Amino acid sequence: MSQKNNTNKPSQPEPPRWAEWLLTQITAPHLRDEVLGDLYELFQKRVQRYGNTTAQLVYALEIVLLLHPRLWRKQTKSTHQYPKPTDYSQPNPMNMLSNYVKIGIRKLNRQKSYTLINVVSLSLGIACVILIFTLVRYHLSFDTFHANQNRIYRIYTEFHGEKLTYSTGVPNPMGDAFRNDYNVAQKIGRIAFLPKRVVTISPQKKFEEDIAFADADFMSIFNFPLIQGNSRSALRERNTALITERIAKKYFGEEDPIGRLLRIDDSLVVSIKGVLQNLPPNTDFRSEIYIPFGNLQNHSPWMVEKDWWFSVNKEMQCFIQLKPGVLAASVDANILPAISNKHYDKDMAKYFQFRLQPLADVHFNPKLRGYTEKKNLWTFVLIGFFLVVTACVNFINLATAQALGRSREIGVRKALGSERSALFWQFITETTLIAGLSLVIALGLAYLAIPFVNQWFDINLAINPFTDPYLLTFLLGLLVIVVFCSGAYPGLILARFQPVLALKGKLSQRSVGGFSLRRGLVVTQFAISQLLIIGTLIVTNQIRYSQQTDMGFRKDATVILPIPNNKKSTINTLAAQLSEMSGVENVTFFDTPPASEFLASTGIRFDSRPKKEDFSIGIKSADYQYVPTFKIPILAGRNLYPSDTVREYLVNEATVKALGLASLKAVIGKTATINGRPGTIVGVMKDFHFKSFRVAIEPLCLTTWGEVYNHCAVKVNMANLEPTLAGFEKAWTALYPSSIYTYRFLDEEIDRLYKLDSMLLRLIQAFAGIAIFVGCLGLYGLVSFMAAQKRKEIGVRKVLGASTSSILWLFGKEFSRLLLIAFVLAAPLAWWVMKEWLNNFVYRIELGAGIFVLAILVTFVVASLTVGFRSVKAALTNPVKTLRTE
Amino acid sequence: MKGTQLGEFEEIVLLTIARLYDDAYGVAVVEELSQRLERPISLGFVHRTMQRLEEKGLVHSRFSEPIAERGGRSKRLFTITMAGEQALREARRIRNELWEGIPKTAFDNLL
């Protein structure tokens, strides 16, 4: 009635149509005129006062403020009847909603096990998804907060030798060459990262810190704001430093850090000129002390030898911000090759090539020391998806199985005029109740689990949907998806019931929708569980293989100490003191332990061959004790003689093979020029894994070269470790008073090569466990339901003489068949995926049938326990009980 | 009896209804109140209060003729009942008594 009059006056501004419609829908009939009229009048007044737009907004706001049960509650008896028509023929949706919620809560309350299974499986699934979302978003957000971040690139080096290798670093003159000769970059920031330097404030206060030497431009390329100090002069003046807030607090407490002095190692004293805001957790730049690049010459002159294009240090990096409109591809194609050609001769220009790496790639490129591959993130996203699917499948299965039980309710509702859509929405409301409850529980679970995840990954994430709009949006989206994925199908089934049949109780299992669909869903669940189980088994085996397989040298009970200063006399004193201690078996000095992630490699010229060999050879410098300490077998010739300069070389078998010689003896006594230094090859070592199992054993040589020793390994007797370690500390600190004592065990160091894999494994194990558990919950629910349905059938069978085992088989055959189908689907997929993963390792386990058999056995045992428990109960029921009622 | 207690906002709305006498309906009360209290008041809040007042029998309501300015809808006009007047007087009496009971020195030496 009111609507009709509205249309008569089109000239006047009208309140938003949708809002009026909405109000008409939800307002109780006896209040409609009043509320709409009041709002209309207010609206007209506001249009005159504040204009149309504001008035529309306020109108919407008023509606939100009107929402209250009083708005849709029926007229109370205490108030008298109005002359206005009170029309209840159209059910008020808000009233229906509260009815749905009420019925829903009663239903859930009555069927506790059904509710419990659904809530537990959904909340476990959602909790995992929340964790995965947080983790993935954290990694995707790395270094995305810099202004113009899509114009920031890092120049990296490709070595086109026999095999293509990469370095994150560039030769030190690269930055200047790029700046002086070309005009494509807005800003060029060179930076040298020097990990684990000793920073001294006073003789008593020393800290080990990662520091960086950076161009002033570096700070303007990247968004690390200063909270104290002048950003324009930052890093321009020599002998100054920027430190982060955290470091300032750690060093000086509440005192003002500006102007304070820091001594870096023993070579440099800088005064603090500025304080940077604490580094956000999502950046790969972890140095917290920045010193002008010009000062690098005072600290590590060997890193900045003038115009030295032939050495590439991975920590000497160069970041550029291109001018707008300059394409990275054209820089890659034209400018960087031109730089190579200008500064190298023809052969070397082919060997040293430079490329641009977008900032967004820095975190994700494992070839260039990125933290992880995006592939791993997508694996987690997929696992999260699987978990939600498993939980939704449970819901669909249980809900359709239960549907029959509510046929009477549906029949009554339909007879009273409920439409299909109303029934559908009723079911969706119930699903929302369960899913909403699960979401809240899941948030709680995720909140409890996040400290453990943080610990595993050594990060600091938080889950708080109230302060994190992305998480909130994600959760709401997830809720909608889960509700519709799991509620839509059972809702449709329910809404389709024929009222007459439903009321008579004549609906059969067939009318609640194909059992085949439910079978299909169970197969999906089994397949997902098996996929995860196979994955877990393979990753576990490979990691165990990496940790337990003989690497070709002895790695147990070996302590590694850093050597801050390798002056010969100091080293000798240390060696003498250490070897005198009881429990010490060997002492050796070297630059890299037998297995390490990175190793310098260089060219080799053998014997009197006219040209350089076209393979590169890894080089380790160590004294003559290295071979006996690590028990590296010598296959031919002898160990090195003691020396401090490069005189003799030990090579490994791979070198002999690469040189194309038939017998190991053939190299002995020959000269080789490696890294520009000639020496005699005196022996051949047995091949050992000097990098991780991901890469093949390549040519390697060992030589004495005292200048570069920076570590010391001590083989100790584990029986009496504590006093020995205390002795080390005492001797070491006496020799290096200005440094900080640390020690590590070699085997821990080697395990760190597989750190990411171990973390991956633990997560996959956890997720696989949850997937299996959720799947079992669903299975249990389904079997319980089947048992209830088949009560009479079982009774009749038993009366007619069926044995318990044959009744068990009634359940068993169904699930065994589904399990086998699932296996047929999962096995090839798992085989393919895991083959891809194992291809990352040169030394790997074989994908044998054993793992697959084990996987199916595990699922079979778990499934039969779940099914068995419930079906034994059904099979043992006395038939008298089940049949008596007939 | 449950509900005869007069809440603070209820009291203010009831007073406004009495004051507006023959023209007390939603919008008028909202405007009067926002002006006096110097803060925006939502219609929903006033509306619910008036419903409660009616349930308590403190006001009586009737519908006006449909009005064009309201999009052809009628107003619901409220008038105060005797019970309403009594409740207001009672509230006022309690307040007066409380005021009178305050010793003169109580407001001296305040922080």
From TrEMBL, chain B:
Residues 17-90 form the Transcription regulator PadR N-terminal domain. Pfam families: PadR (PF03551). This is Helix-turn-helix transcriptional regulator. It comes from Spirosoma profusum. The lineage of its organism: Bacteria, Pseudomonadati, Bacteroidota, Cytophagia, Cytophagales.
